[in-house]
Amino acid sequence: MAGGRCGPRLTALLAAWVAAAAAAAEEEAVLEHIPLPAERSMVLPMTASNWTLVMEGEWMLKFYAPWCPSCQQTDSEWEAFAKNGELLHISVGKVDVIQEPGLSGRFFVTTLPAFFHAKDGIFRRYRGPGIYEDLQNYILEKKWQSVEPLTGWKSPASLTMSGMAGLFSISGKIWHLHNYFTVTLGIPAWCSYVFFIIATLIFGLLMGLVLVLISECFYMPFPRNSSDGPEQSRQSDEAHGAEQLQDAEDEKDDSNEDENKDSLGDDEEEKEDLGDEDEAEEEEEEDHLAAGVDEERSDSQKQGPLREAQEDVVGPEETTGGAPEQPRSTDSEVAEDTLRQRKSQHADKGP
Length: 351
What we know:
Elements: H1 2-33, E1 44-45, E2 58-64, H2 69-73, H3 75-83, H4 85-88, E3 91-96, H5 101-106, E4 114-119, E5 122-126, H6 132-140, H7 159-184, H8 189-218, H9 228-314, H10 326-349
Parallel strand pairs: 1-3, 2-3
Antiparallel strand pairs: 2-4, 4-5
Helix pairs in contact: 3-6, 9-10
């Protein structure tokens, strides 16, 4: 009796234990399939809409691409650096250049990964390794103070870099559109290129038309009278040409007058110099002639007594032989005539 009663109880206990074990196994299996909550990242993704947050406070930014192996190697170091951001009093962000080409153009990123430090709107390029210890020392020791900041047109907040951001964003959209045509729709690549060429030509023509319309709006057109317009323009051109010719002739006349005045002045100076030289020569000749006349007179005076003595000795018959003495008197007369002529010429030149 006792054995028969205990058998059913044991089987019931065994069944209950097996059911409890099966339930526990099912619960463990369910818990294994439930994903654990991911650890919250302290790195803030930056986009074109919220990038202005870096203009206030102190920030460190990382530019990366999902396909870049070097960027993937620094992900863990960057996450660890972001966890200690509260202790360092710094904010940490990252920018995906594939999703945000405009920001990569604003900062003019040419290599990946690229790191930037920002302090109250002043940006500096961090060129060290993306290792946690180096990043931490860069902030704690304020090594960023020894780095030249990006100022002027190089600053990401400048108008120039804003235009660069627009160009990069347009190129990114074109690239995405090309991928959509070739990958999603399966269109050949050359068809996509032809499409972009045609679109570029049409866009250029539209921009030219817009510029022409703007110029017509801002600049007043010339008056257009049906028949008077060409005649008036022709008459105005002729009058303008005549004025130009008259001005040219007046300038030539003025220049000729100046040249004539200069040449006359030079001629007068030369004449004065020549006159002075002629006067000096004439004076010298006059002096020589006067000296010759004086000598002849003195000779004649000396020979006078001799002639008288000879006349007394020879007699009246031989006095007729004094004819040879006449040429001397004629020479003196010629010299006196030449002196008078030169004096008259000098008097004529004087006025």
